[in-house]
């Protein structure tokens, strides 16, 4: 069974990716990489990753989040995070990445932040 | 009588699946030893990062090399050893992932996480080459609110007693 699932919704030019499962070494990190790259290939550079159902991220998953953030920014876009679970929040806090990403607890606020 | 130490050793293939296997194994031992859910998560994550380090940096994903995992349970601590068959490294040579210039690095956070999540962490040269990561967590006191209620690590999933 895949460790991560991703479903993408569109809101007036903003791609909202609902992720659930684990973003960890192996297929979880690979799926996140592919999802962000596919969106960029389609010219979509306003991306929100909804991590509300992501209960585990390891260093490989953190690396993939950073990689996605940088790739989107290099195309002139933004990648933002939504609905962090406590474990993911704590992990981003101790790695100081909480200060790097725009993080939201509310979907409509996250969407409005692009406008 | 000498204090009881339980000991478990496994040799893992240099394969992504070994990362999950090592994590699951250590979490089971930690649960049996009485660690609560949060501590089991931290121990599992640390072992995961240690085996990723051995898989990727130490053995450079070469399938002919092995990863050696050992778990010791003393009366006071759970100690985990992860040994690879690579060239070894010094802890002082590992870049600080919290430094401003490394914040957007896509790798290099594993050692930091092991240090953050365990009570003790160090790297030694392996006896037969490679790097040996040694990490330890103090056991919760029996009957403490931090314990999950198991009073013995001799349940199913705990390591066997060393002869």
What labels describe this entry?
heterodimer; A: alpha/beta; Transcription Regulator spoIIAA; five-stranded mixed beta sheet; B: 163 residues; alpha+beta; five-stranded antiparallel beta sheet; disordered C terminus
Summarize this, please?
Chain A is α/β, with parallel strands linked by helices.
What does this molecule look like?
The complex is a heterodimer of chains A (115) and B (163). In chain A, 40% of the residues lie in helices and 32% in strands. The relative contact order of chain A is 0.18. The longest helix of chain A is centred in the middle third of the chain and has 16 residues, at 59-74. The model of chain A has no long low-confidence stretch (mean pLDDT 96). Chain A has one domain (4-110): Transcription Regulator spoIIAA. In chain A, helix 1 (27-41) runs parallel beside helix 2. Chain A has helices at residues 27-41, 59-74, 86-94, 107-112; strands spanning 4-11, 14-23, 46-57, 78-82, 103-104. Chain A contains four helices and five strands, in the order ββαβαβαβα. In chain A, strand 4 (78-82), helix 3 and strand 5 form a beta-alpha-beta unit. With 115 residues, chain A is of the alpha/beta class. Chain B is an alpha+beta fold and 163 residues long. Chain B has one domain (7-138): Histidine kinase-like ATPase, C-terminal domain (Heat Shock Protein 90), CATH 3.30.565. Chain B has helices spanning 16-33, 37-58, 110-117, and strands at 6-13, 66-73, 77-83, 120-125, 131-138. The longest helix of chain B has 22 residues, at 37-58.
């Amino acid at each position: 069974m895949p460790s991560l699932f991703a479903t993408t919704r569109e809101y007036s030019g903003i791609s909202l990716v609902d992720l659930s499962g684990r973003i960890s070494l192996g297929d979880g990190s690979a799926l996140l990489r592919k999802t962000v790259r596919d969106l960029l290939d389609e010219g979509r550079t306003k991306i929100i990753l909804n991590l509300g159902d992501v209960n585990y991220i390891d260093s490989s998953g953190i690396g993939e989040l950073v990689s996605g953030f940088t790739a989107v920014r290099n195309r002139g876009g933004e990648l933002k995070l939504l609905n962090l679970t406590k474990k993911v929040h704590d992990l981003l806090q101790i790695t100081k990445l909480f200060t790097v990403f725009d993080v939201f607890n509310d979907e409509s606020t996250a969407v409005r932040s692009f406008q | 009588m000498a204090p009881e130490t339980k000991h478990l050793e496994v040799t893992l293939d240099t394969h992504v699946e070994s990362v999950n296997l090592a994590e699951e194994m250590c979490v089971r031992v930690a649960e049996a030893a009485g660690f609560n859910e949060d501590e089991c998560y931290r121990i599992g994550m640390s072992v995961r990062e240690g085996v990723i380090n051995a898989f990727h940096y130490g053995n450079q994903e070469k399938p002919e090399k092995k990863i050696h995992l050992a778990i010791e349970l003393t009366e006071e601590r759970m100690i985990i050893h992860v040994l690879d068959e690579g060239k070894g490294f010094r802890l002082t040579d590992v870049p600080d992932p919290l430094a401003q210039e490394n914040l957007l690095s896509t790798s290099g956070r594993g050692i930091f996480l092991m240090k953050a999540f365990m009570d003790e962490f160090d790297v030694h040269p392996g006896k037969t080459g490679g790097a040996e990561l040694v990490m330890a967590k103090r056991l919760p006191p029996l009957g403490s609110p931090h314990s999950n209620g198991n009073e013995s690590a001799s349940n199913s999933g705990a390591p066997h007693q060393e002869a």
